[in-house]
Amino acid sequence: MVYLAVFPHSCPSIPVRLTGPNQSSKSLTMATRVIPSLKGPYEVVKPSAKHTATVIFLHGLGDSGSGWLAIVKMIKDELPHVKWLLPNAPSRSITANRGFVMPGWFDLPAWDLGNKQEDRDGMLDSARTIDKYIQDEVNAGIPSERIVVGGFSQGGTMALLAGLTARGEDGLFGGKYGWKLGGVAVLSGWMPLSDAFPKMVSPHLVTTPILVSHGTADTVVPHSLGQRTSRILTNDLGVPALEDLTLSQRIPPSGYSPGEGKLGAPGLSFRSYRSAGHEACEQTLEDLKQFLMRVLLQ
Fold first, then answer.
1. At a CB cut-off of 8 Å and minimum separation 6, what does 171 contact?
2. 81 is known as an active-site residue
3. Phospholipase/carboxylesterase/thioesterase domain spans which residues (predicted)?
């Protein structure tokens, strides 16, 4: 049986945990393959004006690019020049879920996301795929500074890896070329490969606008992992700390407040949402929209 967490504010239904009957050893053996998405490599939402910028947004575990189409349609009118690329992760066996096959950018060896067990190969393979999508946009005439990579949950983790890394000392890489991107947006994600990440950072890391947002009541990817991501980026890697705000889930009746006005500047904006779970709440989406409007000015 599949359990979906359905969230308010017109947010997509995000699969957060799947459980089912014990599977046979044969089915688990067959599930070790990585299977390309049957939906194709990605969904595209075309700009309504001249195309001058691209957002590559990565879904979470068990979801698909189409799961975010409704969200994109909610905010795209204020970003008419932006093309949205919503990649579909391949299906793979998820160890933490007893080998259940589902769309995922990488395997999860355990539900405890703060441990040292990580699917390094899966993460790096997916980062190379995202790197190719960035290269395709650049080849089509969109400067890398006009591209934002973002994602939710597992997709947010991949946005960090693909958007903020270059070739590492040990030959590992996320974003092979160390792109100078317009920005990176991480919604309810966590820092990947924290031991190797410092050796892989892009030379443009400290000048890249970064948004990290997280619900304080997230029980799937705990808020503490968002705080840890913020600490690693600022304390260990020298990214300027612009703001650390805790906001309501909902936009107040008085209207949207941009906080200290630093959202979208080079450096890190860390925003927490009071009592929000593993979801893209109303304020999260408004902050994402405002971030994109600032880093991808028309």
1. none
2. no
3. 43-237
